[in-house]
Amino acid sequence: MFKSLLLKGRTLCLLLCCMVSSLVVTAQTKHTGKVIGGDDKLPVVGASVRIKGTNTGTVTDVNGDFTLTLSPGNVLVVSYIGYVTQEVPVNGGAFLTITLQPSSSTLNEVVVTGYTAQRKKDITGAVAIVDVASMNTVTAGNTTTLLQGQASGVTVTNSGQPGGVTSINIRGVGSIFSTAPLVIVDGVAASLDNINAEDIESIQVLKDAGAASIYGVRGSNGVVVVTTKRGKQGKATITYDGQYGTTDPLSKGFNLGGTQTYMQAEFLSYKDDGHTGAGNPNPQFDPNATGTWSIPDFISPAGAHTGDPGTTIASYTLNPVTGTGNQVTMANKVGTDWFHEVFKSAPTQQHNITASGGSDKTTYLMSLGYLDQQGTLLGAYEKRYSLRVNTNFNVADHIRIGENAYMFYKQNPGLPASSNQNEGNVISYTYREPPIIPVYDIAGNFAGTRSQGLSNSQNPVADATRASTYAIANDWQMIGDVFADVDFLKHFNFHTQFGGTVDNFFNSNFSADAYENAEGNTNGNNYGENSGYNSNYTWQNLLTYNQQFGKHSIKVLVGSEAITTYGRGENANRGGYILTDPNFLQLNTGIASTQTNSDYIYSNRLLSYFARIEYAFNDKYLLQANVRRDGSTFFAPGHQWGTFPSASVGWRVSKEDFMKGIAWLNDLKIRGGYGEAGSLGGVPIAPNNANNLYGFSPGGSFYDINGTSTNTVFGTNKSQIGNTATTWETDKTSNIGFDATILNNTIDVTFDVYKKAVSGFLFQELFLSPAGGAQAPFVNAGNIQNTGFDLSATYHGHVNDFKFNLTLNLSHYSNIVKSLTPGTPYLDVNSGGSSRLQNFVRLQPGEPVGEFFGYQEQGLYQTAAAANNSAGVPWYAGAEAGLENLKDVNGDGTVNANDRTFIGNPNPTLTGGFNLNASYKGFDLNAFFYGVYGNKVANYIKYWTDFPQVFDGNVSANVVADSWSPAPGANNSNATIPMLTRAANLGNTAAFTSYYIENGSFLKLKSLQIGYTIPSDQLKRFGISKFRIYVLGNNLFTITKYDGLDPELPPSNLTNSNLSQPDNTSFGIDFGNYPSNEKRYTLGVQVTF
Amino acid sequence: MKKLNLKFSVPLVLVVLISTLYACKKNFLTQAPLGALSPATLGNKAGVDGLLIGAYSLLDGVGGNGGGIDGAASNWLFGGVAAGDAYKGSQPSDGGADALPVGNYTYIPANPYITSRYEILFDGISRSNDVLRTIPLAKDLTAAQAAEDAAEARFLRGHYYLELRKQYGHVPYIDETVTDYNQPNNVEIWPKIEADFKAGMAGMLATQPNKGRANKWAAEAYLAKTYMFERNFAAALPLLQDLIANGTNAQGQKYALNPVFQTNFSPEPSQKNSAESVFAAQNSVNDGANDNNGNKGDELNFPYTAGPGQCCGWDGPSQWLGNSYKTDANGLPLIGTAAALTPYAFNTVGGDVSNTRRGAAYTGNIDPRIDITMGRPNVPYLDWGNPQPGWIRDPTDGVFTPRKNVYSQSEKGSLSDASPGAWDAVESVANNVNLMRFADIILMAAEAEIEVGSTANAETDVNMVRSRAANPAGWVYLNSAYSASSSTYTVNATPADKYVIGLYPAGSFANKAYGRAAVHFERKLELGMEGMRWYDLQRWDGASVADPITGSDGSMAAEINAFFASDITINNQLTGAHFTAGKNEYYSVPQQELDRSKSEGKEQLIQNAGY
């Protein structure tokens, strides 16, 4: 395949050489010249150079050079798309340097699109170009967050956690597993997360297969192509960027009750059941069983009052390992605001120094970065020290070599204790820990739920403090490549590049004895270390042929790529530490008998061949075709290779004669394309997918056959069922769009509609139980379809010195599961965090991925009669007045599992970003709004805060006022919360219902920046060429109806009950997420020397 | 010319380079699996040994597909809670969407407990079948070894199928020859189960090199139990008589009741696998498995805080069970009398420390086994002292705590796990799960004697069990140290309560109905909190013989609904609970199995009646 292409290329090349030479007409003097762009001072390749009034002319080569034989007095007409056509009279000199000035339209931008660069004008696929300049106004450690709202068709969901998880979907949910796009940084696959934002030169997002299929199997979820800054010819410049900011926690928090409300709600939950007085068991609020409640002075001893025995410091005892003793603790009668005990204002600072410059032989850029982002959550932070060195050497006229190197050291221990989801982490403890518990007991030790009758939550201050005292998370990475370019035979270029990533990490943590908790206080402390490395290497070879002749422009690319991925690491733990000084903790200092170890190892490779042809006729008719062939170790021989073709065409209508008279239309290009790309789906987590294998684990296959109680014997079991037929999942994208520039180049519009059909998506096969416990293989199991549109429009305006740009990016997708494995009617999935309510989500053909599935709540039963059906039988077991009125969907007179239905779609109808850029003299202003419309959110926090019987944690501030009351004569017409009770049934806490579903739409002012640039003439004497100072405010407001902290929710990223692997089937579920809408105020300077 | 050479040579070199890459394509895309064994490496004695151990390792219901607390070997939920031995426990919403509906019979067939038990049992079957498939490949096995291994694998498979059959009724049968897992479940599998146990009897040694292995007697006991489920008492009785007369455990010790009842529940290696142990799931701790080989299926079933558990207050024994231990002046149980069933009539000795709602303390006679079966306020709990108020997590949990699955304070850290960082380490314990103990065999024999043998023999059998319970050395005493190594209190001066237990007088079973009731009730007392009750009720209901459910006399529904009616006054988690006769005698077939059967193109599986 590849060889034949190469042969064809050679034949074509010979032919074309002859054609071009025939165009050169003999004349008197031979002149050479160079055409460079006025914007970037780089050679303009393929510019047309024509003698005015004749048909004689040529085009510039890859160095921007041309040779023409001219007569004195000739005038050259030099033109290239995106530049103002220029007429240059030929004078005496033999060498001409012609600088073309760019025309104002943004269509002139050079876009890196899969192994090559194109003018935006020539693009026929769907490519979103990120405005890097305005991107830099969003301060964040995580570069991914900068993409949000800046490119149509790209849905980015943030976490506010420093270094936290950010998810990107390009054009909907393309896979059940990862939807993360391929990120290419300077030609090498990398992650966006750790890039120093200051280093970024450009970002392009390749959205459709027409653009992305050159990346083949890695292109299915779209491709984000990032190029970093490189040195430019000219004198050396040094730039300093610095900013300092402070982030404030959300003022409202979870809107919880204080001690008064909490105790009252607890009391009512018993009282409403008729269990008060003699039967009232809570030792805290009614220790004497009087049938009323009061707030005690002490919670340890339970329910004690001042003067009671055991309430003095003299009677205080505490064993800090077991938690036993009389840990005297006073009640916080007002209520501890746990949220603001752990969320505090926190500083962020970022500094960057870039030095760059170069000569005609060498260019260089060195960038030194430092980021220190402190999270508002106690103990959450990210620190990063980075260095980038990019250099280029022109070793000969036609040979260039260079390198890109990026190194960083990062410290990011994640969240203090546990993950960012579910009931067992610091954030969820802020709504679960009862407010009556103070942070500290009377002796200054942590107080907690060890005080009887106050739930099983943990003290979030204690957890965060301990975790941040001990957690170490170091990561060292080096990402980069070396490359060589050779130009030969005038129109050919060969590029070879070897690059990759080496990532080393070391983490350690220590869980201290938590004496203050009701649970988890007797298992002993634990120290753990894990370390390892991950690596990938890419070797890439590209051969490019590029020529223009007459009205024809042709570019051919063939290439090969080989990618090797390998990693291994280990994890070790010990316990029983008697001394817990952080400096002392090592594996060896723990008790040897408690040790546990584990390892990981993986290795896989991808081999690819690809080709592209770009052809343009008269700048009017554009054609691009790609084909890529990928082979992977993940599949069995015979199914390793996939072929991914694509083709797209463009028609610049505005160049047609019949359009010439339309004055308001400056440029119009209609595009269309179809192509295929692939994805590995979740297969990378099952590298042995094709094989039948046996494995072993101490807990899963070893057995104490000798009855020793403490020693097991080796055992083994089938661990993997292979499937040799599994192969790539394929998505087929059709795209139609247009790019238009109208009204005297003031408005640019790009619009695309698409259909993206994923076929044979990879899904772990669902075996019947008799197949046993071996991991099921991934199979090509179903189809998903996304349809949607992307719109991007910019208005460039100015009033005298006041210049402004308005940009709107709008994305819509609608997602539908077309089919599952034949015969599979649906698949119920849950994320680990939702296990207390069972499944939240059903995957079913005809419905979108991730749609919530449960009972339809329609208010509360107001009367006992309403809780019964026509036969006088309760609608469901335990139904009574004051509980949720659940819809009898199938009308069979009873409410049961068959009445569950689809109750909300977490996929947004629209996401959009709106940018305002303005400048007046030295002042500049940027405002960026981001909004999501039409998505539903499952507010699982209400499960914990609206129902006192759920582990007796803290309650919503309105839980007493807004709950249904059984008291005689109570007015319940406005009650929204079910009756407070101890019982758990379908009508309150035993099922997932639409009670938890909320509108997730929001609009955020993500950033507002005002800057001032001091006129440079005043600064020159200090050697400063530019000095800009700015203030930046982030998240100044969020408009939403959502009750929780922030409706912007990253994927649950938890374990699917059926598949035992993280997946993408459930999202938009709020388990107590780190909010990403905290206000931040930043002051920054930019200085160029 | 020189320049031209360079121009051509550079690309030429590169083309060669690319071609080289192309040529090594085949190697480049070959990747051997890392960190796993290929099937070929197991076709030998070591491989078969390993696979067989792997098949044993799922006896505890943990470590494979499904399983865990949802699929525990002890059947604490399906066999105990759902039959009234215990409450789900904890706070109402803890497990309110999954465990509670099982106990209350309001669950749906997609319930994770229903699914997990099914999955783990089939995983055990799958592992047993892997042993049988691999034996022919292992040329270094002697014929005797091959026969023994095969017999053990078939016994294990029989065990797993028996568990499935009694739980789900309709069970597809897959043996080592079947490669299509989508098999129908409308074929009665009792004959297959019998065949596996018969093969076990024929092929296994009587005395094994390892305490934890099954032996031929265990297979015989399981065959007898299978016949009991089939209500084929005539076939069961001679086997049971043979077992009582001649049976030995895997170490060759003659089957006998341990003199001290508590010995059966000790995690001490010297007491586990005793003469009373017919077959047990071996549990171990501090063995490098990060607490995963302890009795994980029961890890929630501990007092809430500050005792042997650090969590979670599940599976608290019910008032209904507690009431059963009341005895009359002769030390005989109050079978079916109003006094036994009335709630609040009996609470505990010395008043209730946790609340005062439940009436006065009971002061009458009581069977001493109550205090081995459950923790009660004011009664010493091994060497942990008296249960504390904090042990009861929620008022709906009643006042009792699980006891047969716990360890002594003196054993903490050595026979409970000490894995650092595991939240549940102290609830991961070395106590075996008694899958069958000799007392069970004796009481099955008594039952068979009532039905097809001699009522006098039945009396003898039941009294054998009661005599052991009457051994004062095995009682709980106040003001005494507890010795975990002997499972006894060292000073036997002050019994913790008014223990009075007597034997049935000769001839009292002549009235078969009375004898039957007495034998049935004795199983409740002796095997309480051992996950047996539900399956016993099912056997006695006649429900398990055939399908659709026929011969049901409604007795199972009657007893379980009586429990609900009685104990709802204590535990309002039972609100809405109802056992439907003709339906709930079997648990539902898991929804996912029905769905997946369909998705494979054949609707091979049927659901049980009523679901």
Report on the structure:
The complex is a heterodimer of chains A (1089) and B (611). In chain A, 7% of the residues lie in helices and 43% in strands. Chain A has 1089 residues and is mainly β. Chain A has a 22-stranded antiparallel β-barrel. Chain B has a two-stranded antiparallel sheet. In chain B, strands 2-3 form a two-stranded antiparallel ribbon. Chain B contains 19 helices and 10 strands. Chain B is globular. Chain B starts with a helix and ends in a 12-residue tail after the last helix. The longest helix of chain B is centred in the first third of the chain and has 26 residues, at 143-168. Classes of the chains: A mainly beta (1089), B mainly alpha (611). Chains A and B meet through helix 1, strand 25, strand 26, strand 27 and strand 28 of A and helix 1, helix 3, helix 5, helix 6 and helix 19 of B.
Structural class by SSE content of chain B: mainly alpha
What fraction of the residues of chain A are assigned to beta strands by DSSP? 35-45%
Percent of residues in β-strands of chain B = under 5%
Alpha plus pi helix count of chain A: 8
Report the principal-axis shape of chain A.
elongated
> Based on the structure, what is the oligomeric state of the protein chains?
heterodimer
Which overall shape of chain B is indicated by the principal axes computed on the Cα atoms? globular
Major beta sheet summary of chain B: 2 strands, antiparallel
Could you give a short account of the major beta sheet of chain A?
Answer: 22 strands, antiparallel, barrel
If you average the pLDDT of chain A, what whole number results?
A: 85
> Could you estimate the helical fraction of the residues of chain A in percent?
under 10%
Low-confidence stretches of chain B: 349-357
* Terminal CA distance of chain B: 89 Å
Helix coverage percent of chain B: 25-40%
Count of DSSP E strands of chain B? 10
Specify which chain pair forms the largest interface. Answer: A-B, 135 and 133 residues
Number of strands of chain A: 52
Q: Separation of termini of chain A?
A: 53 Å
